[in-house]
Protein backbone atom coordinates (compact mmCIF):
# COMPACT_ATOMS: atom_id res chain seq x y z
CA UNK A 1 0.00 0.00 0.00
CA UNK A 2 2.80 2.44 0.84
CA UNK A 3 4.62 1.70 -2.44
CA UNK A 4 1.44 2.35 -4.44
CA UNK A 5 0.92 5.61 -2.58
CA UNK A 6 4.54 6.67 -3.24
CA UNK A 7 4.19 5.83 -6.95
CA UNK A 8 0.98 7.86 -7.17
CA UNK A 9 2.59 10.86 -5.48
CA UNK A 10 5.60 10.69 -7.84
CA UNK A 11 3.34 10.64 -10.90
CA UNK A 12 1.27 13.49 -9.49
CA UNK A 13 4.37 15.56 -8.82
CA UNK A 14 5.55 14.95 -12.40
CA UNK A 15 2.20 16.03 -13.83
CA UNK A 16 2.15 19.16 -11.67
CA UNK A 17 5.68 20.08 -12.76
CA UNK A 18 4.85 19.90 -16.49
CA UNK A 19 1.31 21.26 -16.35
CA UNK A 20 0.29 24.55 -17.98
CA UNK A 21 -1.52 27.19 -15.97
CA UNK A 22 -4.94 25.92 -17.05
CA UNK A 23 -3.98 22.26 -16.46
CA UNK A 24 -2.55 23.13 -13.06
CA UNK A 25 -5.86 24.76 -12.08
CA UNK A 26 -7.85 21.75 -13.34
CA UNK A 27 -5.65 19.34 -11.36
CA UNK A 28 -6.07 21.41 -8.20
CA UNK A 29 -9.84 21.49 -8.67
CA UNK A 30 -9.99 17.73 -9.23
CA UNK A 31 -7.85 17.07 -6.16
CA UNK A 32 -10.12 19.25 -4.04
CA UNK A 33 -13.16 17.32 -5.30
CA UNK A 34 -11.49 13.97 -4.56
CA UNK A 35 -10.53 15.15 -1.05
CA UNK A 36 -14.10 16.24 -0.39
CA UNK A 37 -15.50 12.92 -1.63
CA UNK A 38 -13.01 10.96 0.45
CA UNK A 39 -13.84 13.02 3.54
CA UNK A 40 -17.56 12.39 3.16
CA UNK A 41 -16.92 8.68 2.63
CA UNK A 42 -14.79 8.37 5.79
CA UNK A 43 -17.05 10.29 8.17
CA UNK A 44 -19.70 7.54 8.49
CA UNK A 45 -16.99 4.91 8.95
CA UNK A 46 -15.23 6.98 11.62
CA UNK A 47 -18.53 7.54 13.41
CA UNK A 48 -19.19 3.79 13.31
CA UNK A 49 -15.76 3.01 14.78
CA UNK A 50 -16.25 5.59 17.53
CA UNK A 51 -19.71 4.21 18.29
CA UNK A 52 -18.39 0.64 18.50
CA UNK A 53 -15.51 1.70 20.76
CA UNK A 54 -17.91 3.53 23.07
CA UNK A 55 -20.30 0.59 23.04
CA UNK A 56 -17.49 -1.81 24.02
CA UNK A 57 -16.42 0.50 26.83
CA UNK A 58 -19.97 0.70 28.18
CA UNK A 59 -20.37 -3.08 27.94
CA UNK A 60 -17.17 -3.57 29.95
CA UNK A 61 -18.34 -1.09 32.59
CA UNK A 62 -21.70 -2.85 32.81
CA UNK A 63 -19.98 -6.23 33.19
CA UNK A 64 -17.91 -4.89 36.08
CA UNK A 65 -20.99 -3.29 37.65
CA UNK A 66 -22.84 -6.61 37.51
CA UNK A 67 -19.88 -8.49 38.95
CA UNK A 68 -19.76 -6.00 41.82
CA UNK A 69 -23.46 -6.60 42.40
CA UNK A 70 -22.91 -10.37 42.49
CA UNK A 71 -20.35 -9.85 45.26
CA UNK A 72 -22.90 -7.80 47.19
CA UNK A 73 -25.62 -10.40 46.69
CA UNK A 74 -23.34 -13.24 47.79
CA UNK A 75 -22.46 -11.50 51.04
CA UNK A 76 -26.05 -10.38 51.60
CA UNK A 77 -27.60 -13.81 51.19
CA UNK A 78 -24.76 -15.75 52.81
CA UNK A 79 -23.68 -13.89 55.98
CA UNK A 80 -21.18 -16.64 56.79
CA UNK A 81 -18.97 -15.27 54.01
CA UNK A 82 -18.67 -11.98 55.90
CA UNK A 83 -17.25 -13.81 58.91
CA UNK A 84 -14.38 -15.10 56.75
CA UNK A 85 -13.24 -11.53 56.02
CA UNK A 86 -11.63 -9.46 58.77
CA UNK A 87 -13.76 -6.41 59.42
CA UNK A 88 -12.58 -3.33 61.24
CA UNK A 89 -13.75 -3.30 64.84
CA UNK A 90 -11.57 -0.74 66.58
CA UNK A 91 -9.85 1.69 64.15
CA UNK A 92 -11.35 5.15 63.76
CA UNK A 93 -10.37 8.09 61.57
CA UNK A 94 -10.42 11.69 62.76
CA UNK A 95 -10.30 14.60 60.32
CA UNK A 96 -11.66 18.07 59.76
CA UNK A 97 -11.76 17.40 56.01
CA UNK A 98 -13.95 14.36 55.30
CA UNK A 99 -14.02 15.01 51.53
CA UNK A 100 -11.48 16.45 49.10
CA UNK A 101 -14.01 18.99 47.91
CA UNK A 102 -11.98 20.67 45.15
CA UNK A 103 -10.55 17.52 43.58
CA UNK A 104 -11.67 16.72 40.04
CA UNK A 105 -11.72 13.06 41.06
CA UNK A 106 -14.53 13.98 43.45
CA UNK A 107 -16.26 16.62 41.34
CA UNK A 108 -16.12 14.60 38.11
CA UNK A 109 -15.51 11.01 39.24
CA UNK A 110 -14.22 8.78 36.47
CA UNK A 111 -11.27 6.65 37.54
CA UNK A 112 -12.50 7.09 41.14
CA UNK A 113 -14.50 3.88 40.79
CA UNK A 114 -11.49 1.87 39.61
CA UNK A 115 -9.46 -0.31 41.93
CA UNK A 116 -11.97 -3.14 42.27
CA UNK A 117 -9.46 -5.70 41.01
CA UNK A 118 -7.80 -8.04 43.49
CA UNK A 119 -4.17 -9.16 43.65
CA UNK A 120 -3.43 -12.09 45.99
CA UNK A 121 0.18 -12.27 44.78
CA UNK A 122 0.95 -8.93 46.45
CA UNK A 123 -0.59 -10.06 49.74
CA UNK A 124 1.30 -13.35 49.61
CA UNK A 125 4.62 -11.51 49.22
CA UNK A 126 3.80 -9.28 52.19
CA UNK A 127 2.92 -12.33 54.29
CA UNK A 128 6.15 -14.12 53.40
CA UNK A 129 8.16 -11.06 54.38
CA UNK A 130 6.50 -10.05 57.64
CA UNK A 131 5.57 -13.51 58.95
CA UNK A 132 2.89 -12.00 61.21
CA UNK A 133 -0.53 -10.33 60.87
CA UNK A 134 -0.27 -7.22 58.72
CA UNK A 135 -1.78 -3.80 59.26
CA UNK A 136 -2.47 -2.42 55.80
CA UNK A 137 -3.50 1.05 54.58
CA UNK A 138 -4.46 1.99 51.02
CA UNK A 139 -4.70 5.72 50.25
CA UNK A 140 -6.76 6.59 47.20
CA UNK A 141 -8.31 3.13 47.42
CA UNK A 142 -11.07 3.60 44.82
CA UNK A 143 -13.27 0.50 44.79
CA UNK A 144 -11.19 -1.14 47.52
CA UNK A 145 -9.94 -4.32 45.86
CA UNK A 146 -6.64 -4.42 47.76
CA UNK A 147 -8.36 -3.68 51.08
CA UNK A 148 -10.68 -6.63 50.52
CA UNK A 149 -7.76 -8.85 49.49
CA UNK A 150 -5.84 -8.18 52.70
CA UNK A 151 -9.00 -8.49 54.82
CA UNK A 152 -9.92 -11.81 53.18
CA UNK A 153 -6.48 -13.10 54.23
CA UNK A 154 -7.26 -12.17 57.84
CA UNK A 155 -5.26 -8.93 58.03
CA UNK A 156 -6.36 -5.56 59.37
CA UNK A 157 -7.00 -3.47 56.24
CA UNK A 158 -8.13 0.12 55.92
CA UNK A 159 -8.92 2.11 52.78
CA UNK A 160 -9.10 5.90 52.43
CA UNK A 161 -10.46 7.86 49.50
CA UNK A 162 -10.92 11.58 48.95
CA UNK A 163 -14.30 11.12 47.29
CA UNK A 164 -17.54 9.63 48.60
CA UNK A 165 -18.43 8.42 45.09
CA UNK A 166 -17.90 4.72 45.89
CA UNK A 167 -19.52 5.04 49.30
CA UNK A 168 -22.69 6.68 48.01
CA UNK A 169 -22.88 4.47 44.94
CA UNK A 170 -22.25 1.15 46.74
CA UNK A 171 -19.34 0.60 44.36
CA UNK A 172 -16.77 -2.16 44.68
CA UNK A 173 -16.14 -3.53 48.16
CA UNK A 174 -17.37 -0.50 50.12
CA UNK A 175 -20.81 -1.96 50.97
CA UNK A 176 -19.29 -5.34 51.90
CA UNK A 177 -16.70 -3.92 54.32
CA UNK A 178 -18.16 -0.50 55.03
CA UNK A 179 -16.40 -0.32 58.41
CA UNK A 180 -13.00 -0.75 56.72
CA UNK A 181 -13.35 2.33 54.49
CA UNK A 182 -13.16 6.03 55.29
CA UNK A 183 -13.37 9.21 53.27
CA UNK A 184 -11.04 12.13 53.90
CA UNK A 185 -8.77 14.60 52.17
CA UNK A 186 -5.45 12.80 52.66
CA UNK A 187 -3.50 16.01 52.04
CA UNK A 188 -5.01 17.53 55.20
CA UNK A 189 -4.26 16.33 58.74
CA UNK A 190 -5.97 13.08 59.68
CA UNK A 191 -5.39 10.50 62.37
CA UNK A 192 -6.14 6.80 62.51
CA UNK A 193 -6.38 5.40 66.02
CA UNK A 194 -6.96 1.91 67.37
CA UNK A 195 -8.86 2.06 70.67
CA UNK A 196 -7.56 5.62 71.10
CA UNK A 197 -3.96 4.52 70.48
CA UNK A 198 -1.98 5.75 67.48
CA UNK A 199 -2.27 3.26 64.64
CA UNK A 200 0.63 2.60 62.28
CA UNK A 201 0.75 0.27 59.30
CA UNK A 202 3.28 -2.24 58.02
CA UNK A 203 2.26 -1.60 54.42
CA UNK A 204 0.92 1.66 52.97
CA UNK A 205 0.09 1.89 49.27
CA UNK A 206 -0.83 4.54 46.73
CA UNK A 207 -1.28 3.07 43.26
CA UNK A 208 -1.95 5.51 40.40
CA UNK A 209 -2.82 8.21 42.91
CA UNK A 210 0.15 10.50 43.59
CA UNK A 211 -0.12 12.18 40.17
CA UNK A 212 -3.67 13.21 41.11
CA UNK A 213 -2.34 15.37 43.98
CA UNK A 214 -1.36 19.02 43.31
CA UNK A 215 2.28 19.80 43.99
CA UNK A 216 1.30 22.34 46.66
CA UNK A 217 -0.50 19.61 48.65
CA UNK A 218 2.14 16.88 48.56
CA UNK A 219 3.97 17.82 51.76
CA UNK A 220 0.74 17.55 53.74
CA UNK A 221 0.06 14.14 52.22
CA UNK A 222 3.55 12.83 52.98
CA UNK A 223 3.38 14.08 56.54
CA UNK A 224 0.30 11.90 57.05
CA UNK A 225 1.98 8.93 55.38
CA UNK A 226 5.16 9.25 57.45
CA UNK A 227 3.16 9.47 60.69
CA UNK A 228 1.10 6.36 59.90
CA UNK A 229 3.91 4.21 58.47
CA UNK A 230 5.49 1.67 60.82
CA UNK A 231 9.22 2.22 61.39
CA UNK A 232 9.89 -1.09 59.64
CA UNK A 233 7.14 -0.73 57.10
CA UNK A 234 7.00 -0.12 53.34
CA UNK A 235 5.29 2.64 51.40
CA UNK A 236 4.86 1.52 47.81
CA UNK A 237 2.85 2.28 44.71
CA UNK A 238 3.00 3.58 41.17
CA UNK A 239 3.11 6.97 39.47
CA UNK A 240 1.78 7.62 35.99
CA UNK A 241 3.70 9.96 33.70
CA UNK A 242 0.87 10.23 31.17
CA UNK A 243 -1.53 13.10 30.68
CA UNK A 244 -5.07 12.24 31.74
CA UNK A 245 -7.84 14.73 31.09
CA UNK A 246 -11.38 14.96 29.81
CA UNK A 247 -11.62 18.25 27.94
CA UNK A 248 -10.85 20.97 30.47
CA UNK A 249 -11.01 18.56 33.41
CA UNK A 250 -7.47 17.52 34.33
CA UNK A 251 -6.99 14.44 36.52
CA UNK A 252 -3.20 13.99 36.41
CA UNK A 253 -2.24 17.37 37.82
CA UNK A 254 1.37 16.55 38.78
CA UNK A 255 3.44 15.04 35.98
CA UNK A 256 7.06 14.89 37.07
CA UNK A 257 9.96 12.45 36.48
CA UNK A 258 11.03 9.86 39.01
CA UNK A 259 14.04 11.92 40.14
CA UNK A 260 11.71 14.80 41.05
CA UNK A 261 9.50 12.51 43.10
CA UNK A 262 12.54 11.05 44.84
CA UNK A 263 13.44 14.54 46.07
CA UNK A 264 9.88 15.12 47.33
CA UNK A 265 10.02 11.83 49.25
CA UNK A 266 13.42 12.74 50.72
CA UNK A 267 12.38 16.11 52.08
CA UNK A 268 9.48 14.38 53.83
CA UNK A 269 11.54 11.72 55.59
CA UNK A 270 11.09 8.91 53.07
CA UNK A 271 13.56 7.32 50.68
CA UNK A 272 13.32 5.00 47.70
CA UNK A 273 14.88 1.63 48.43
CA UNK A 274 15.91 -1.48 46.51
CA UNK A 275 16.11 -3.49 49.73
CA UNK A 276 12.62 -4.98 49.67
CA UNK A 277 10.88 -8.29 48.86
CA UNK A 278 8.70 -7.07 45.97
CA UNK A 279 9.29 -7.85 42.33
CA UNK A 280 7.68 -6.23 39.30
CA UNK A 281 4.63 -8.49 39.13
CA UNK A 282 3.86 -8.03 42.83
CA UNK A 283 2.71 -4.50 42.08
CA UNK A 284 -1.01 -3.82 41.78
CA UNK A 285 -0.91 -1.42 38.83
CA UNK A 286 1.46 -0.62 35.98
CA UNK A 287 2.09 -4.29 35.16
CA UNK A 288 -0.28 -4.56 32.19
CA UNK A 289 -2.80 -6.83 33.89
CA UNK A 290 -5.56 -5.81 31.45
CA UNK A 291 -8.66 -3.70 31.94
CA UNK A 292 -8.03 -0.70 34.22
CA UNK A 293 -4.31 -1.53 34.03
CA UNK A 294 -3.27 -1.26 30.37
CA UNK A 295 0.22 0.13 31.00
CA UNK A 296 3.38 -1.92 31.48
CA UNK A 297 6.00 0.25 33.18
CA UNK A 298 8.86 -2.18 32.52
CA UNK A 299 8.23 -2.34 28.78
CA UNK A 300 7.30 1.34 28.51
CA UNK A 301 9.11 3.27 31.28
CA UNK A 302 8.10 6.58 29.71
CA UNK A 303 4.50 5.87 30.83
CA UNK A 304 5.20 5.53 34.57
CA UNK A 305 7.17 3.85 37.34
CA UNK A 306 6.87 1.91 40.58
CA UNK A 307 8.41 2.85 43.90
CA UNK A 308 9.10 1.21 47.22
CA UNK A 309 10.03 3.55 50.05
CA UNK A 310 10.92 3.36 53.72
CA UNK A 311 11.46 5.89 56.45
CA UNK A 312 14.85 7.58 56.14
Describe this entry's structure for a reader.
With 312 residues, this protein is of the alpha/beta class. The chain has nine helices and twelve strands. It has two domains: 2-67; 85-311, Rossmann fold (3-Layer(aba) Sandwich), CATH 3.40.50. It has a seven-stranded mixed β-sheet, sandwiched between helices. A three-stranded antiparallel β-sheet has the order 1-5-6, with no helix packed on it. Helix 6 (145-152) links the parallel strand 2 and strand 3. The protein is elongated and about 90 Å long. The termini are far apart.
Give the helices and strands, then pairings.
Blueprint lengths: L1 H17 L2 H57 L1 H4 L8 E5 L8 H4 L12 H11 L4 E5 L5 H8 L3 E6 L3 H5 L11 E3 L6 E5 L2 E2 L2 E7 L10 H11 E12 L4 E2 L2 E2 L7 H10 L2 E3 L31 E8 L1
Q: What form results from the Cα inertia axes?
A: elongated
Counting DSSP E segments of at least 2 residues, the number of strands comes to 12
The CATH top-level class label of the largest domain: Alpha Beta
Using the coordinates shown, work out and report the CATH topology of the largest domain.
Rossmann fold
Looking at the overall shape, the CATH architecture of the largest domain is 3-Layer(aba) Sandwich
The CATH superfamily of the largest domain is known as: Vaccinia Virus protein VP39
CA gyration radius, whole angstroms: 26 Å
Amino acid sequence: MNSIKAYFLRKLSSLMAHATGQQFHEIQTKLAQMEDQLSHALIPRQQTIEWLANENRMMMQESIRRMDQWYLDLFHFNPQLKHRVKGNESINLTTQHPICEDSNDHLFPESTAEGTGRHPRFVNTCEQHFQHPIDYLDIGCGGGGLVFEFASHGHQAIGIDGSNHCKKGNIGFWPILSENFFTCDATQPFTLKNNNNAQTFHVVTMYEALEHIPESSLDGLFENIHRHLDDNGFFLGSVSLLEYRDGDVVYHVTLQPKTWWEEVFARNGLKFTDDHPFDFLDHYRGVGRGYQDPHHYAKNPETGFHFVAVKS
